[in-house]
Amino acid sequence: MRRPLVAGNWKMNGDKKNIATLVAGLLSLKCKADVVVFPPYVYILQVLTGLSGTAVAVGAQNISEYKSGAYTGEISSEMLRDIGCQYCLVGHSERRSLYGENDRQVAKKFHQAQLAGLKPILCLGETLKQREKGKTFDLISAQIDTVLDCAGVNSLSDAIIAYEPVWAIGTGKPATIDQIQLVHQYIREKLGASGVKTRILYGGSVTPANTAELLFQADIDGVLVGGASLDIDTFNEMCQLA
Ligand code: PEP
Questions:
Q1: Whose Cα sits closest to atom 8 in ligand 1?
Q2: Which of 109, 132, 175, 187 has the greatest CB tally within 10 Å of its CB?
Q3: Catalytic annotation, residues
Q4: Predicted confidence band of residue 35 (pLDDT cuts 50, 70, 90)
Q5: CA 96 to ligand 1 centroid distance, Å
Q6: Which of 62, 121, 169, 201 should be mutated for ligand 1, with most atoms under 8 A from CB?
C-alpha cells in the first residue's frame, strides 16, 4: 500500500512570528499520513528546530540543478540534506512560468536531489490552453520522459509526483475528480511496473472540502496544498482526513 502524503507549500509567505505560529500548530498534529511542509528558505532552520522530534518533515521549495560550486545565490541538495531537510519540490509551475525553468532543468534538479538523498516531489501539469488543445497527456509524458532520461529509468519508481494543473493552482477551482484520476491513472500506466510504489499527489485548490474524496481515488496518494496550508487548523484537518 502507498502511504498517503500531505504536503504544505508555504511559498513566499510569513515572517518569524507567523512561522512560529504555524510550527506550534503542527506540534499537536496526530495523523496516519506522512506530512511535510515547505517553508521559505530563510525559515527552514527555524522550522526544522521547532518540529524536531515530531513526525512532520521539512523540505525546500526549490534547489539548484548543480551539485556545488560558483553558483551565487543558489542552494544545493546536499546543503539541505546537511541541515536535516528530507524533501524538496522541483518544477513547481510558478518556477516554470515565472522563472523559465524547462523540463531539462527540472530533471537535473530531480536527479541532484535524489543523489543527495532528498526526496524530490516532481511537479507537473498543463496550462488551460494546453488542456483545451488536447495536449495534457503528451505534455505530461514529455515531462516524465525527460526525468527518466536524466535521472535513470527507475528514478520514479520510489518517488513522488505531484500533478498540478496550472489552471487549478490558487484559483479556488480544482480540477474535477474524474479529470484528476484520469491523469493519475495515465501516469501510473506510463510508469508500468516501476510505478506501483510511486506516490502521485494532486495539487490545485485543495481544501478540507475535497481532500477525502480525492484520497478515496485509486491513484491519488496525497495532496500538495498551497494557500490552505497557511491556516494551520485547515491544514491539520486535511492531514487528519488523509
Ligand atoms: C501549489 O501552489 O502547489 C498549490 C497547489 O496551490 P493552491 O493549493 O493554493 O492551489
A1: 226
A2: 109
A3: 92, 164
A4: very high
A5: 14
A6: 169
Give the integer Cα–Cα distance in Å for 48 and 221: 25
Written as one letter, the residue type at 214 is L
β-strand partners of 163: 124, 202
Integer Cα distance of 195 and 158 in angstroms: 8
Answer whether 226 contacts ligand 1 (Cβ < 6 A). yes
Question: CB neighbours of 82 closer than 8 A, spacing ≥ 6?
Answer: none
CA 132 from chain centre, in angstroms, equals 25
CB 201 within 8 A of CB 121: yes
The model's pTM:
0.97
pLDDT at position 182 is 96
Task: List CB contacts of 136: < 8 A, sequence separation 6 or more.
Answer: 126, 130, 183
User: pLDDT by residue (tens digit) across 173-228?
Assistant: 999 999 999 999 999 999 999 999 999 999 999 999 999 999 999 999 999 999 99
